[in-house]
Inverse folding.
């Protein structure tokens, strides 16, 4: 038997045992996203209309003038009826899980953030004590309502839901894969896909 015939015979024997590429499914996309988050290096940001991770504090309490940082003396303290609306940037949150709720819905979970007070410099020696609001620990994603999934470097932005969300991944290569899985969910769940437009 010639070498060419031996190679052909061997190829025919091996062919049934070759691995097949796994089919992409909605279930597989949900599973992939949950496994990525389980690795622990994913961060989470929201934009409710004030910019990424900017939280609006509707009331600020107790304004102090001529704050002496050396002695800690607060001169000219005003009563807590002096309010001011302000917006403050907070740090990214660690994403703890993303789970499938239904075929076209996921839930993102982060550590719970309770209301807290911070001091904000409002000019030379003027300070506001600001109470940042409670931030809920979970957000839903209805994939049929998502307008856009966009990969930006090592981040993935999901728009069209309230609030918009942005995930920070460990690498750009991983962000590309996450964006692909999210876009797959968006297109598979798109209620308008059967209209021809």
């Amino acid at each position: 038997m010639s070498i060419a015939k031996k190679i052909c015979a061997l190829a025919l024997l091996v062919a049934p045992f070759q691995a097949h590429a796994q089919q992409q499914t909605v279930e597989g996309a949900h599973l992939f996203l949950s496994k990525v988050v389980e690795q622990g290096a994913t961060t989470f940001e929201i934009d409710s209309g004030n910019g990424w991770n900017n939280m609006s504090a509707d009331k600020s309490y107790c304004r102090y003038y001529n704050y002496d940082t050396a002695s800690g003396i607060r001169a000219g303290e005003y009563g807590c009826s002096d309010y001011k609306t302000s917006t403050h940037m907070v740090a990214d949150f660690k994403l703890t899980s993303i789970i499938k709720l239904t075929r076209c819905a996921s839930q993102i979970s982060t550590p719970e953030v309770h209301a807290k007070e911070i001091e904000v410099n409002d000019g030379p020696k003027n300070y506001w004590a600001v109470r940042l609001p409670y931030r809920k620990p979970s957000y839903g994603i209805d994939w049929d309502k998502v307008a856009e999934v966009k990969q930006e470097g090592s981040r993935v932005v999901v728009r069209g839901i309230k609030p918009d969300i942005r995930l920070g991944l460990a690498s750009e290569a991983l962000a590309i894969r996450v964006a692909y899985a999210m876009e797959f969910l968006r297109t598979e769940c798109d209620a308008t896909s059967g209209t021809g437009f």
